[in-house]
C-alpha cells in the first residue's frame, strides 16, 4: 500500500491552510511537513496495524498482518487451513509423547484487543522471528498463537505444537500451570 499520496495530501492541505497567513507562514508549514514526514508515516502505519489487529480479532482462524516492504506497508492474510501438517521438530529429547490430544477448541472471538510490552533477550526475539517467518506469520501473530496454545489446555510439561507442529514450546513448573495464579519457573522453546 502506497502511503505517499496520503502524506502528500496532508502536506498540501497544511500548506494551503498556512497560505492564508502569508508567504513566511507557508514556507514554515512546508518545512514542518518535511520534518514530520517520518512521523506521519509512522502514525499511518500504527493505524493500519491496529486495523489489521482488529480484523484478525474478528476472524475465527485467519490472521491479517501488516509487513513493511521498503518504506511501504503490505497486508498479508494468513489462512491457517492452507498450512500443511508436518511432524514436530525437536532439538532435544523430551518426556515420552503424551496420548493424542483432542482437537483444539476454536479460539474465542475476542471482543477487544489489549496491548502489552514484552521484553525479550535479542537471541530469543531473533529465534521467535525466524519461527514466525517460517510459518508465514508476523511475530505478534505467532506469539498470540503460542499463548493461545498454552492456555487452551496444555498441561505442565506437555509439548505444545504451534502452526500444526512446525515449532514447539514446553512449559515446566513445579509451582502451577496456566490459570493456577502462580508464575511458571521456566519456559523452554526450540525452533528449527
UniProtKB/TrEMBL annotation:
InterPro entries: Arc_rbn_hlx_hlx (IPR013321), Ribbon_hlx_hlx (IPR010985), Uncharacterised_HicB (IPR008651). One of its GO terms (biological process) is regulation of DNA-templated transcription. Residues 92-113, 168-192 are annotated as: Disordered. Residues 95-107 have a biased composition (Pro residues). This is Toxin-antitoxin system HicB family antitoxin. It comes from Nocardioides mangrovicus.
Amino acid at each position: 500500500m502506497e502511503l505517499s499520496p496520503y502524506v502528500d495530501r496532508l502536506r498540501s492541505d497544511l500548506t494551503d491552510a498556512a497560505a492564508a497567513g502569508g508567504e513566511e507562514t507557508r514556507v514554515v508549514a512546508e518545512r514542518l511537513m518535511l520534518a514530520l514526514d517520518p512521523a506521519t508515516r509512522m502514525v499511518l502505519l500504527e493505524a493500519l496495524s491496529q486495523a489489521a489487529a482488529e480484523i484478525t480479532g474478528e476472524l475465527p482462524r485467519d490472521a491479517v498482518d501488516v509487513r513493511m516492504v521498503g518504506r511501504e506497508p503490505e497486508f498479508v492474510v494468513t489462512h491457517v487451513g492452507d498450512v500443511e501438517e508436518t511432524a514436530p521438530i525437536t532439538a532435544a529429547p523430551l518426556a515420552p509423547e503424551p496420548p493424542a490430544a483432542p482437537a483444539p477448541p476454536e479460539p474465542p472471538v475476542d471482543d477487544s484487543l489489549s496491548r502489552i510490552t514484552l521484553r525479550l533477550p535479542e537471541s530469543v526475539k531473533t529465534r521467535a522471528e525466524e519461527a514466525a517467518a517460517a510459518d508465514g506469520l508476523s511475530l505478534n501473530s505467532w506469539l498470540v498463537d503460542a499463548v493461545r496454545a498454552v492456555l487452551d489446555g496444555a498441561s505442565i510439561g506437555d509439548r505444545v505444537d504451534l502452526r500444526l507442529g512446525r515449532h514447539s514450546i514446553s512449559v515446566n513448573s513445579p509451582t502451577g500451570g496456566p490459570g493456577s495464579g502462580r508464575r511458571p519457573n521456566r519456559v523452554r522453546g526450540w525452533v528449527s
